[in-house]
Design brief:
The protein is built from eight helices and seven strands; from the N terminus they run H-E-H-E-H-E-H-E-H-E-H-E-H-H-E. Helices cover about 45% and strands about 15% of the residues. It is globular and about 50 Å long.
């Protein structure tokens, strides 16, 4: 019988799907799951980026890596991703709803209907649809883990994150709903990241880092690999009694919320 600590990093024979998987936190999770023995599905809007990472992962780990172009804001593309995964592997053990987008806008009054709808589609609607299509099949198989990725903006949104924050707060609600709907066989949890040094962070002004030093308990942004431990925990059997939970990985950015 394997121990909890062994189960934490043993993904041999499992299939893990990561949306937004070609860059940033998604890429770090894809690489970690493959290193732990999983076959991986890398989904994002740009197929060439998915294919490039799939080739790197296969060469480095020997695991199967399936690249799939998918815009999670498109209902039909979410369904197509589900079909592609089950056609290729016949199963999915872990779904990571990581894809997200927070477009800028000049002011709240100048937010267009199209921008509003696009932000909700990518951050909330896609999470709903993929959780439903993969979740139903996981329930039928008798096992599975769904990990949603939200943001500190769900709990402490700034004025420039009003729509994004509302969508990510909705992800927290979906996490609880799906955990109840798909228990006891499928677990549904959420990671709530703070600021991380992804490629997007290269566009941050230096003043952003000063804000982190003043306001975060750890006084810095996170390195992308620092999301991996929490992701492995929620995906693995080591978290067998954890569902409907939101785990903050934010350097101490948000206090007083669950």
């Amino acid at each position: 019988m394997t121990t909890p600590e062994e189960r934490l990093t043993d993904f041999a024979g499992r299939v893990v799907v990561v949306t937004g998987g070609s860059r940033g936190l998604g890429r770090a999770m894809v690489e970690a799951f493959a290193r732990c023995g999983a076959d991986v599905v890398i989904a994002s809007r740009k197929l060439d980026a998915c294919e490039a990472l799939a080739a790197e992962v296969a060469a480095a780990t020997g695991r199967r890596a399936l690249p799939v172009a998918c815009h999670v804001g498109d209902w039909d593309q979410c369904d197509a991703l589900t079909e592609a995964v089950y056609d290729e592997f016949g199963r999915c053990d872990v779904l990571v709803n990581n894809a997200g987008s927070s477009p800028l806008y000049p002011s709240l009054a100048e937010v267009s209907e199209a921008l509003f709808d696009k932000t909700l589609a990518v951050n909330l609607r896609g999470t709903f649809r993929l959780s439903a299509t993969f979740g139903e099949r996981m329930v039928a198989a008798g096992t599975g883990s769904i990990i949603n990725v939200s943001s500190v903006s769900a709990s402490a949104p700034t004025p420039i994150e009003a729509i994004y924050g509302a969508a990510k707060a909705g992800v927290h609600s979906l996490t609880e709903s799906f955990a109840r709907a798909y228990g006891p066989t499928v677990r549904v949890n959420c990671l709530q990241p703070g600021p991380f040094l992804t490629d997007i962070s290269t566009h941050w002004p230096e003043s952003a880092h000063e804000v982190f030093r003043r306001n975060l308990a750890l006084q810095r942004a996170g390195e992308v690999d620092e999301i991996v431990g929490a992701a492995l925990y929620l995906a693995s059997d080591a978290s067998s009694f954890t569902t409907g939970s939101v785990i903050k990985v934010d350097g101490g950015a948000v206090y007083g919320t669950g």
